[in-house]
Amino acid sequence: MCIFLLSVVTYLLLVWSGGPIEPAEVVIAVVLGGVLARAGRSWAEGESWFPRSFSFIRLGRFLFYLFGPFAVALFKANIDVALRVISGEIRPGIVKVPSHQEGDGALTLLANSITLTPGTLTVDVDEESRSLYVHWIYVTDPSPAEEEIYGSFGEWARRISA
Q1: Taking Cα atoms as reference points, which of 112, 118, 123 lies closest to residue 156?
Q2: What is the pLDDT along the chain (162 residues), one digit of tens a residue?
């Protein structure tokens, strides 16, 4: 049922142009959703719809992080990058930043949060030292502290993946 609903909603969002959705599009969405749900059921018989590590507490933490601290940092970074573009005050470079993340999920969440924030881009991960190589728009220190690059993202990644 989950695959069916996700397929139908995704298709309808892709074809929606801001106005009313044609009835033919709804029919196509339902047929396509049915085909994908049937195929999904035959590929993964007997498997749970949710991963073993899924929990509603984690989901709640993630949503709070996404619409709270991450949204605030995203807003601040957009303003900072816009001002740097206008003023021309940039010193781009790649820096190595320790992450101190234990699990792969936490490291991935941290790397993606850095990449989604304007002015920074995660370009590589050193799996042995669990460090991230980050392209930074305004390098002030060749070996910056964690908080300089990604603020509280590291702590939130640990909380969400715990």
Answers
A1: 112
A2: 677 888 888 888 898 888 888 899 999 999 998 888 888 776 666 655 556 667 888 889 999 999 999 999 999 999 999 999 999 999 999 999 988 888 888 899 999 999 999 999 999 999 889 899 999 999 988 888 888 888 889 899 989 887
The tokens describing 126, both together, are 């050193």
pTM for the predicted model, two decimal places? 0.68
Give the strands of the sheet with 131-136, arranged side by side.
93-98, 131-136, 120-126
- Whole-number Å distance between alpha carbons of 88 and 81: 10
Q: How far apart are CA 148 and CA 97, in angstroms?
A: 10
| Gap between the terminal Cα atoms of the chain | 29
Reduced to 3 states, what is the DSSP secondary structure of residue 124?
strand
98, 109 contact by CB (below 8 A): no
DSSP assigned state of 20: P
**Structure token digits, residue 154:** 């590291």
Give the Å distances, CA to CA, from 31 to 4, 24, 34, 37, 114. 9, 11, 5, 10, 39
